[in-house]
Amino acid sequence: MADKRAVTLNVNGKDYRITVEPRRTLADALRDDCGLTGTHIGCEHGVCGACTVLVDNRPVRSCLMFAVQAEGRNVRTVEGLANGEELHPLQKAFWEKHGLQCGFCTPGFLMLATGILEAEPDISDEDLRDVLSSNLCRCTGYQNIIKAVRAAASEMRACQPSASL
Amino acid sequence: MSWIGRSLPRLEDPSLLKGQGRYVADLARGAAAVKFVRSPLAAGAILGIEKPDDGLVFTADDLVGVKAIRPLLHRPDYVPVSQPVLAKDRVVFCGQAVAVVVADDQGLAEDLAEQVFVDIEPEDAVVDFAQALGEGARAVHPEAPGNVLVEGNIRTPGVDAAFAAAAEVVALELRSGRQTAMPLEARGGVARFDPLAGRVTLYASVQMPHMLRTGIADVLGFPESDLRVVAPDVGGGFGQKMSLFPEYVVLVWLARHLQRDVAWLEDRRENFLAAAHSRDQVFKVRGAFAADGTLLAIDADLKSNVGAFSCYPVTCGVEPLMGLAELPGPYRFSEYAARSRGVTTNTCMMAPYRGVARPMLTLTMERMMDVAARRLGIDPVEIRRRNLIETFPHRSPTGLVYDEGSYGETMELAVKALDLPTFRRRQAEARAAGRYLGAGFSVFSERTGYGTPAYAARGMDIVPGYELVNLAMDPSGFVEARIGASPHGQGLKTSLAQLIADELGVPPTKVRIIAGDTDATPYGWGTFASRSMVIAGGACKIAAGKVAERLKSVAAAMMHVEPETIRLADDLAYAEASNQTLPIGEVARAAYHQSHRFPQAGPGLQEQALYDPAGTFSNACHACIVEVDVETGGVKIERFVVAEDAGILINPMIVDGQIHGGVAQGIANALFEELVYDETGNLLTASLADYLPPTIAEMPSIEIEHLVTYSEATITRAKGVGEGGTIGAPAAVINAIVDALSPFGIDLFEIPATPQRIRDLIRNAERTSHG
Amino acid sequence: MKPAPFEYVRPSSRAEAVAALATHGDDGKAIAGGQSLVAAMNFRLARPAVLVDLNGATDLDYLRPEGGKLRIGALTRHAAFHRPVVEGPLGVLLARVVRNIAHYPIRQRGTFTGSLAHADPASEWCLVSRTLGAEMVIANTGGERVCAAADFFRGTFTTAVGTEDLLAEARLPLLGPNWRSGFFEFSRRAGDFALAMSLAALEIEGGVIRAARLGVGGVADRPLRLEALEAQLVGQAPSAALFAGMGEAARDLITPTEDIHASADYRRDLIRTVVNRALTQAAS
Q1: Which residue does chain C place closest to B758, by CA atoms?
Q2: C191 close to B (CB below 8 A)
Q3: Which pTM value belongs to this model?
Q4: Ranges assigned E (strand) in A47-161
C-alpha cells in the first residue's frame, strides 16, 4: 500500500478534503470519499461511460483518472446539475422523453450531454450522435436518449445567449 | 378520465435523474470489501490452495455445514448437479469462485486475492457440443456421463406421413453464439449484520428477492426469518439477476461468520466470466412443406449449451424445454417431432436472458419460411400469410393454448409501413449501382404472464408464477401496494400506479408501490419472463377493486346512498344520484377512525389479492431494411419497424421503451455480441474491448405500430411486452441480410452475423462464381 | 478492478519529468492522458511502481507549426485536432482522422504522443506518424534525440522509447497546398479499434499524382507504410482502376495478424478495401 495523500477536490463548486492512495480513481474518490454516489461505475476500463463527469467542463471517464490528478481542477457531477428542486433542461428532457429505464447509465449520459451542449450548443445531429456513441445504455436502445438530448439542446439554446463569438 | 393509456412520465425518475438513486454500491459505506479468487482454468482437480499468512481468506473447507446449490426438476430425463458455493476438490469453469478474501477496501482486497494461489491439475476442457457429445467425451460431472443434463422429446403421430407427403423438405442448421445480458450495473451485494437481532440484511442487485432469501437460507441452513433481502434500485437485469449465485450465499455466510458488514461489488470482468451466459444453441430442423407453401410438419433436434451448472430456481431446463414447447411459434402446422437437450460443458452457467429460447426458435422458423418461399417460388410475405394462426383459441402441437392475437394483421401492418413495393424498386436500382439492400421479416409469438400451471408443467421443484399484493389506502387517502414482483428499470411502479389510480379514483402520485424487500412485501416471484405487468398488475387490479368496494361502502354510508351509486374519480367519491361529493381522503379517514359507523365495511381499507393466470400470447412482426457493404461485410440497418400487439397499453411510452431496448439487444444478438471461449475453456471476450454491445451509432431509429387485441386471458387485458423486441429482431435482421445478398446466392444460418462471417460467405461465393 | 499500489510524482516541467524518469528507471512510467494506461492498470495488466504524471509539466503543452513541421508537445490532447490546427491539408487530414479515435471523452484526455508511446497497432496517430514520416523527439537526462517514424515503431506496444526516456514531442511535416488526404477505417462499432485502416496523402498537380504517402494500420504489429506502392502511384492519373489495383497490391503485400475479430483472410479483404477507399477519398 502506497502512502495516502491529502487531496482537495473541488466538486460542484465545493471543496472536499480527502485522504487517498494515489491509486484511488476519481470515480472511487467521488463515490467513496466525497459520498457523491450519483457517478456510477460500470466497467472501469473506459468503455461504458457510466462514470462520465466533467473536469474543467470537459466530459471525461472518471475511472481513467486518479483522484490525485484532479486536484486543482473543477469537477462537475450529476449532483450539481439541478438547481435545487429545479431540474436541469437535460434532466427534464430525459424525464419527459423517457430517456432512462434502470437509470444506471443516466448520470454518465447527462454529464456527457451537458459537456457537449455547453461546448457546442449548435452541434449537428450527426456530430451529436457521434458524441453520444461514447456511452453505453442497455435499456433504452438509445431511442429516447437522443430525443431527450435534442429537446434539451433546443431549450438550452432558447434560454441562453449563443456562446459563439 | 382514465390514467390507463397515458404516457405518464415515470414516478421513479426524479431521484434517478438527480444522482440520488440507491443502487447496491451506494449502500456499501463502511462495509468491508469482499473479493473472490476465481479459477483461471476451465477444468481440473484442486491440489491445494496457498493462502497468505495475514488477512481474511476463506475456502470451501471453511464453509462447515454449508450445502451446495442443487436445483431440481421432477422429470426422469433431468440429472441434478450440485454447485458448491466455493469450488471444492475440482473446478468446472474458468471464473468459478474458489476462495474469498475480505479486506478494508476494494484495492486491498484485490491485493490480498493476488496472494492466494490455487494449484490445479488441469484436465481437458469440454467447451462445445462436439466435445461434449462426441464419442467417449469426458464427463463434466461424473453423475452425467453423456453430458446431457436435461432432455425433452415430443412426437405427434403424423410426422412421418407429413414428411412423406411433402412437396419440399427444407433442412437447416442454425447456430446462435453465446451472449450475456450485460446489465450496466454488474451484480453485487451488501450484507449487514445486526448484532442485536442476529439477523442479516442483504441488499442485492437482484430480480427475485424472495427466492434469493429462500435459496440462501436453505443452503446455509437457517430460518428464512434470519435474513432480509432488499433489492434497492437495480441497474438492469434482463434475466441475469434472477438466479441464486454462490457469491450471495458466501456473502451472507461471511456477514454471519465475521459478524460484520461486508460488500461484494462485482467488476465487469467477473460479470463476463461468472455471472450467467445465454444462447449458445444449435437447432437442426427439417420442415415439410406442401407445394402451396403450407407447412405440414417440423422435425427438430435442439441443443442448448447450459454451461457448468444448472441455475436455481428455474434450472438448466429453461432454454431446452422452452425451445421444445414453443418452436412452432405463430404457425398452425400440427405435426411436430422434436428432441431438445441441455448439454453441460466447462463454461459459465447459462441462465435465463431476455427472450429465452425464442430469439433462436424465431430465427429458426423465420429462416425456414424464407428458404421455403425461395424454393417454392412464393413471396416470403405470402408464405407466412398461408401459415399464420388465424383462429383462436389456437392449440399448438405441443398443447399450448394461444389466446386472441393478431399475427397476420401485425405482419400486414409492418409490410405496409415498410412500403415493400417501393422498396423493391429501390433495391433493384441500388443493385444496379453496386449497392446491396435487403428487407427481412420476422413474425413471432411471445408467451407472457404465465402463472403456476405453466411452470408446474415443466416439472419444476419450485413452481413460481402467482403474485400476491397487499394493498391499503391509509387514513390520509394515499395508497400503498406491496407487491411480490421486483422491478429493475421497467417503470412498473408507474404503470401499476396508473392501474390502481383508475380503480380507486386517486391520482397516481398518491399511489406508492413497495417492492423488492422481503420484510415489506408478500412472498412473490420477482420480475422476469414478461410477467409483472400481467400478473402483479392483475393482482393490483383485484386488490384495488376490493378496496374500492370498501371505500364505496363507507362513502355510501356517509352520504346515505347505495354503494352502487358511488363513483370514485378525481380524488372524490361522487354520489351521482344525489349530486353529493366527499374527498376520498375524508372517506378513508372515516373508514379507519369511525369504523363503528360502518359495521358492514369493517375497519380500514386493506386487502390482499392473488392472481395466477394461465398466460397469454403477445405477438408482433419485426421488419427491417439493411444495407450490406459486400467488401467489408459490414451491415447498416436503415429502417426497423415493429408492429406489435400486447393488448391494452397501460403506459404507451413505457411499452415503447421496452420494445426499443429489446430490439437493441436483439440487434446485438444478430450482429455484434458474442462471448468466445478458446479450446481450453478460457474466455477471450472478458472486457468491453472485445464484447461489443451496440452504441447509439449502430442503432437505427425504431418505428413502432400498435394493434390492440382484447384478450380475455388477462384481467387487465394487458399482455407482457418485456421480451418481444429481443425475440423478433435477430430473424428480421438476418432475413434482410440474406435478401440483400441474394445476387450472391448466399444463405446465413449463424448469429451474430459478424462482418467477417458475412465477408467469408461472400468470398466463397465469389470464388465459386469465378471458378 | 483496482490498480495495484504505486507511488505518484508530478513534475512541473519537462526537465523535472525527464529527471524523474531517470530516477525511477524501470519502475517509472510516464502518464499523460492515461486513457490506455489506466485501463490496463485497472485490470492489473500494467503495474508501474511509480507513476510520473506529465500533466503538471506545462511546458509540454504546445502545438505549433515551425520550420515546415507541426510540433506536437506531449500534453496535446486528441481533442485539439477536432478542428484543423494548421491551415492547409495537414490540419484537414488530422481533423478527419481524429474522429475515429475512440470516443469524445477519451479524446478530451488522451494525447497524441501518448498514443505513439503506447504503440497500439490499431492506433490512428501511429499510422499517421508512420505514413507521413513523423519525427519523434525523445528526451532523457543525456539530452534529446530525434527518431524517424520508420525506426520508432518496433512492434506491438513497443517503441524506441527506453525506460528512462520521455517522448517529448512529435513533428509532422506540413503538407504543401496540392496535397490531399483520404482516410478509411473499418471497425465493428463507432470508436472501436480498427480491424484495418488506411491513410493516403496525394500531391496532385495537373491531374497527375506527383507524390504519394500510403499507409495501412491495424493489420500488423505496427503501422505499415507502403513505399513500393507510393512509387507506383507517382506519375499516374488518379482513377478508380488505379486505386482498385493499389488495394489489391496492398492486400498481396501484407501478411496480416489474426485475432478473434478478424482472420488473416478477412483482414486481407479489408486491406484491399481500406486502401482503395482511402485513395479514392484523397483524390475526390
Answers
A1: C266
A2: yes
A3: 0.97
A4: 52-55, 58-61, 74-76
